[in-house]
Design brief:
The chain has four helices and no strands. By secondary structure, it is mainly α. Helix 3 packs across helix 4.
């Protein structure tokens, strides 16, 4: 993992992660719709672009630590209970890990 990028503040990294997660979820939603409605062939170019986004994010996330994978997936990429982390971490431990997870995730995306 690269060292923290001094160009970005914690708030900027969080906004970047929010935007990436929104894009990821939008792509997944369109892909699922096309699959259910058997519209992949009619929307092949859009489907392939969505697939590239989803695959890139998933692939980058797989290179991250297990903590980062769990935090990014649970907080940003999947629908989870807002207090999901209480089963795994103390509140202070979670927030400390979350900041590191965001930094690691963004660095892995090479943004």
């Amino acid at each position: 993992m690269q060292e923290n990028n001094p160009e970005y503040t914690v708030q900027q990294l969080e906004k970047m992660t929010d935007r990436i997660s929104s894009l990821y979820k939008e792509c997944r939603k369109r892909m699922n719709y096309c699959q259910r409605a058997a519209l992949i062939e009619e929307n092949k170019d859009a489907y392939e672009q969505d697939l590239k986004v989803v695959a890139y994010v998933d692939c980058c996330l797989e290179t991250c630590s297990k903590d980062t994978q769990k935090i990014i997936r649970s907080d940003y990429l999947e629908v989870s209970d807002p207090k999901w982390y209480m089963e795994y971490y103390s509140a202070t431990g979670y927030y400390r890990r979350k900041q590191k997870a965001i930094e690691e995730f963004i660095n892995c995306l090479d943004l």
